[in-house]
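Review box. Two proteins, two foldings.
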Amino acid sequence: MDIAVDKVTEIILRVRAIAVKEGATDPDSGSNPIDDGSTDVLVSGTDDATEQEVSGMIGSLNDDERADLLALLYVGRGDMEPEDWSEAVRFAREREAAGEGALREILGTPNAGDLLDEGMANLGITPDLPQA
C-alpha cells in the first residue's frame, strides 16, 4: 500500500467527524456557544472547517495515495476482495482519471470512515482507532 496508515487513520477520524454532524435546527438562535455548552460543534454550518480539512488532506495526497484510499473504500464496501487489491487500485486510478475522484466518492459515501476502517481490517491492517 502506497499510503501511510497514519494518513488513512487521520482521514477516517475526520470523515467520521463529518458523519456525526447534523443540519442546523435553529440557525438563528442567537445563543452564545458558552451558554449552550458548545453543542453547535455537532452541527454543520458555513464556518465548519472539518470538510475543508478532509478536502485538503485528500487533495494533498499524490496519485498513488489517492488510488489506495479509494481502493480501501472498495475493499471495505465489499466491491472488491482483499485478494484483488491490485485490481482495486487499478480501478481506483481509472476513476481518478475519469474525474470521479477520491474526495467526491469519500465525502459522498455516508459511512466512508467505517468502510475505510473495514478495508484496512480486511487487508490485515489494524490501526489504533477509537471505535465508532
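Next protein.
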Amino acid sequence: MDELDLKGNTALITGAASGIGRAIAELFAHHGAAVCAVDMDTAGVETVADRITRTGGTALAVAADVTRVTDCEDAVQAALKLGEGLQILVNNAGIIRRASVLETSERDWDRVMEVNVKSIYLMSRAAIPQMQKAARGAIINTSSGWGLVAGPRAAAYCASKGGVVQLTKAMAIDHGPEGIRVNCICPGDTDTPLLRQEARELGEPAEEFLKDAASRPLQRVGSPEEIAQAALFLASDASSFVTGAVLVVDGGGLAGG
C-alpha cells in the first residue's frame, strides 16, 4: 500500500467545501498530502481544513472563484507555501443546471461552462508550470457519466462534462513528455448536496430522486468517499503508467449504456 502514500506531496483541490471535493481533501490528507482546499464557500472550506489539521494533517483553506484568472493564480501561490512545489491538482469544482437547450438561459449556459470547463483550463494553466519544474505531477479532473452519455434536461451540463473528458485527453498528450499525468473521473450519481440540488431543480422529493438514481447494477448511489478512493489511485504512484484515462465510478450505471 506504500504506492498510495502521498507524503511529501502538496495537493490543491477545488470544490473542496463539500461532497466529493471534501472527501478527496480528507482522504488525501489521511494519506499524507498537504492539502490546499479551495472553494467559494469560505466557511465550508475553512471547516474542512480545520478538520484535517485537528486530526494531525496539514491543510490550508483558500476562498476563491476558480473562474477568475487571479483567483486561480493566487490559489496556486498559496499551495506553494505548504511545501516544496505542487505535485497534485484535483479540478473538482462543478455545478449543474437541469434544463434543455430551450429552457437554458444564456447566463446559465455560460456559468456552467465557466465553472465546469474554464476553471480546469485556468487552474491547470496556473499549476502546470510548477509541475514542469519538478518534471512530475498528477492532475485529476472530475467529469461525469453524463460526459460520456447524455441525459435528459441537462444540455449545458452534458456538454461541459463531455468537454472535460476531451480536455483531459488533450492535456495528457501535451504534458505527458514532461512527466505530468492527466486523468479524469466520471462519477455516477453520488449522494452529495449537488445531487440533492438536482432534485430541487426538477421539483422532485429528494428521497424519491435518490431512489430512482439507485437503479443500476449495484442498486444504490455512490458515496463521496468511494469517488475519493478513485481520485487517490490516480493521484498516487499506484497509477504511475496511467494518463489520458477516463475512470468511470458509477456502480455499473453505464455498463448497459
